[in-house]
Amino acid sequence: MSSEFLIVSQNRGYLYVVAAALLWAVSGSAAKFLFSTGISPFELVQLRLTIAAAVLLIWLLVGRPAWLRIAPRDIGYFIILGSGAMATVQFTYLFAISKIHVAAAVLIQYLAPSLIALYTVAATRDRLGRMTVLALAVAFSGCYLVVGTYNFDVLNLNYPGVVSGFLSALSFAWYSLQGEYGMRRYHPWTVLFFSMFFGAAAWNILQPPLAAFWRGYSLLQWGWISHISLLGTLLPFGLYFKGINLIRSTRASITATLEPITAGVLSYIFLKEIMRPLQITGGIMVIAAVILLQIKQEFDENAPDVIRRRKGPATSDVIDSAAKTD
């Protein structure tokens, strides 16, 4: 596999995650608005996962039916990934932003890159490059500044919301790492679909099946529900997984810290909110962290895409010849 191919693949991976961060940035504020209209986090999770899984199923049936095939021995893995990691990360993040500032919830969730890096070093014995470690530190520091967390009264924060934020970071790290593991055998859209399918199934068991769909929502509410389900869940998680597929979990999660910067810029443009000097400094730091990751192209033979290509036609996404052109 040529170095030119690896460079192009890695650059695509970063672009995928950047696009995911742009989409996630809007969905947090949209969810906060829906909570103010009376929709609960429980209902919104059921709505967004069920809609996202249904739309993705239709798309795969029409365009990529081969990506719906999985080995029976992997069903347990997908049940745990979906009903555990996916269902948990969706709820804990939404519950956190329903109780505390969106910015504080985002900052806590972006402890996930540090957790992923620690796991990578401790459990898998993989070594992190110096650029990756430096980027991790710069990204978190910049994220702290850009969301203005230094202005919050920590003692008066809602503690269930804070705890939920930490659980969100843990589940986001778990989801990223386990998703990467699954992509060593399956295409990213396969892993995403089954994680969403079993996540939706879990929330339709924990809640009365489809109960959230029968409430009398306004057209405005349905518009934002649809936005969060498709442009805030399905598409960004798909792009994030495609990014992990090429650059792995650690670098993908660091790159995703662009989300709070994007939210700040959008607030400045559309809501005329002023970005203070420290916030601008934080934004520059996060952008610098993403650039640091790319200054030295750290070729990783353990990236899921590389592993599947080494294995050849035995893996599910190579069976379908159309996948080669994706």
Task: Explain what this protein looks like in three dimensions.
By secondary structure, the chain is mainly alpha-helical. Helices cover 74% and strands 0% of the residues. The protein has 13 helices and no strands. The longest helix has 37 residues, at 219-255.
In short, what is this structure?
The protein is mostly helical and 326 residues long.
Count of extended strands: 0
| Structural class determined from secondary elements | mainly alpha
How far apart lie the N and C ends? 18 Å
For the residues shown, what is the average pLDDT? 85
Sequence of secondary-structure elements:
HHHHHHHHHHHHH
Cα gyration radius (Å) = 19 Å
The biggest beta sheet reads: none
Task: Please give the share of residues in helix.
Answer: over 70%
| Shape type | globular
What portion of residues belong to β-strands? under 5%
What is the count of helical runs? 13
What ranges have pLDDT less than 50 throughout 5 or more consecutive residues? 316-326
List keywords for this structure.
mainly alpha; disordered C terminus; single chain; 13 helices; 0% strand
Question: How are the elements arranged and paired?
Answer:
Elements: H1 3-36, H2 41-63, H3 75-99, H4 102-109, H5 112-122, H6 130-146, H7 159-182, H8 188-206, H9 219-255, H10 258-270, H11 277-295, H12 304-311, H13 316-319
